[in-house]
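Q: I'm building a small set of examples for a reading group on sequence design. Run inverse folding on the following structure and report the sequence directly after it, with nothing in between.
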């Protein structure tokens, strides 16, 4: 039986084949290290996320200046910014990442359903510093190459990899890869349900010394961040709760100082 992972995989392939990644605004990368930025942060390392919509919430914001949002995220103390570039389910745009690159000096993560080397090449040309790879999709054969080869290709393009997992088995396998950062998604993309205990359960039973681990999804309050901080994670990726707030700069600052 198919689930939302398969929907993402099918739709991403259609987007690639439809030429979405053939037209973009070139912007030289600053070649900043997401991993280094996290390790050198002396407060809570928060990766803020720019997204206009999600499969669960629908439209989050409309008619907004995304470059100004990026600037206030930086001013609020964000360690890095994730930019949704996936168009079908998140209303993302690859041009947004180029625009954000011009606006801020933080590491930028291209958040997309990346299955093709073409997408990685584009990421390197529009100013990204890192890309998201979702392990489940590679395990299901949606990638045009296997995960290890894709990670190698990302590195050849002078980008870093945030490798996203959701289960203990995926986390154990991810530790054996050359991914720069491992992200634990508290949302199960099979059914879109969130459980913050996902991060806690995985890290409680697996050693992760020397790894940079990011907890993703479901972080709505400072209490949520403090709960996850106790698990030993290195950083926090926060999107919807920041994009939904009226005062984005203050919300980012609240998380950074929680």
């Amino acid at each position: 039986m198919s689930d939302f992972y398969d929907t993402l995989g099918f739709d991403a392939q259609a987007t690639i084949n439809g030429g979405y990644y053939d037209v973009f605004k070139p912007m030289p990368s600053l070649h900043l290290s997401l991993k280094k930025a996290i390790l050198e942060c002396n407060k809570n390392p928060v990766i803020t996320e720019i997204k206009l919509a999600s499969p669960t919430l629908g439209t989050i914001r409309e008619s907004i200046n995304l470059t100004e949002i990026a600037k206030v995220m930086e001013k609020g103390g964000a360690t890095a910014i994730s930019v949704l570039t996936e168009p079908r389910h998140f209303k993302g745009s690859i041009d947004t990442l180029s625009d954000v690159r011009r606006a801020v000096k933080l590491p930028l993560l291209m958040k997309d359903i990346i299955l093709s080397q073409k997408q990685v090449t584009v990421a390197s040309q529009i100013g990204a510093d890192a890309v998201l790879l979702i392990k489940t999709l590679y395990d299901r054969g949606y990638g045009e190459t296997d995960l290890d080869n894709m990670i190698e290709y990302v590195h050849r393009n002078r980008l870093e990899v945030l490798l996203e997992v959701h289960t203990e088995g995926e986390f154990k396998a991810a530790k054996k890869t050359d991914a720069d950062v491992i992200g634990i998604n508290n949302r199960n993309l099979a059914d879109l349900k969130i459980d913050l205990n996902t991060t806690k359960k995985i890290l409680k039973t697996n050693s992760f010394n020397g790894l940079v681990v990011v907890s993703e999804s479901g972080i709505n309050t400072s209490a949520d961040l403090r709960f996850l901080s106790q698990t030993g994670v290195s950083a926090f990726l926060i999107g919807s709760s920041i994009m939904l707030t009226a005062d984005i700069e203050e919300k980012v600052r609240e998380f950074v100082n929680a």
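DSSP finds 13 helices and twelve strands in the chain.
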